[in-house]
Specification:
Helices cover about 25% and strands about 35% of the residues. The relative contact order is 0.23. The longest helix has 23 residues, at about 75-100. It has three helices and six strands. Strand 2 and strand 3 form a beta hairpin. By secondary structure, the chain is α/β, with parallel strands linked by helices. The chain has a single domain (about 5-150), classed as 2-Layer Sandwich (60s Ribosomal Protein L30, Chain: A). It starts with a strand and ends in a 10-residue tail after the last strand. Helix 1 runs parallel beside helix 3 (about 130-140).
């Protein structure tokens, strides 16, 4: 069976709990609270059987926001430290879901920041080549990764273009 791959590349950010025992590692390592994957195979769409079944899947990393609740003049140190770690980890998981980079035909990314953060905090992490180039190289992308960023509380929806 030939499967057409539709990709959603997602990362969400939440606020850091001040008493979290999960904050470990080097000072510049992200606190990854959770990793979630989603995998859906569509056989019928619009009351009609699909010519070829297609899949839509996502990888999400729920990461503590190191800038939550305060003004930070320069986000660059954390962006440069977090971007490559998250980009590589999420790309490996996405390619494992797809089977190969060549199997992926469409993709996007999204970030959600908690209510105690700024949209720029979410944007900063996914809009760096240190994050996105892992994925671009894995799928042979020639264009930018379409995106959506927002702020929201618990259970906020994620929109991926």
């Amino acid at each position: 069976m030939h499967v057409t791959i539709k990709l959603l590349f997602v990362k969400t950010c939440t606020n850091r709990h001040p008493h979290s025992s999960a904050w470990k590692g080097r000072p510049m390592d992200p606190e990854i609270r959770k990793i979630a994957t989603y995998d859906e195979e569509v056989l019928v769409e619009g009351f009609k059987a699909a010519d070829k079944p297609w899949r839509m899947f996502a990888v999400a990393a729920i990461v503590t926001n190191p800038w939550a609740g305060k003004f930070v003049e320069d986000l660059k140190p954390e962006i440069q430290a977090y971007g490559p770690l998250l980009g590589e980890m999420m790309t490996k998981r996405m390619i494992a879901l797809a089977g190969s980079g060549e199997a992926i035909e469409a993709y996007g990314k999204s970030a959600v920041v908690g209510l105690n953060g700024e949209i720029e905090h979410a944007s900063a992490l996914i809009h760096t080549l240190r994050f996105g180039n892992f994925y671009r190289e894995a799928v042979g992308a020639k264009s930018y990764l379409a995106f959506a960023n927002t702020r929201g509380g618990a259970n906020a929806p994620i929109t991926v273009p």
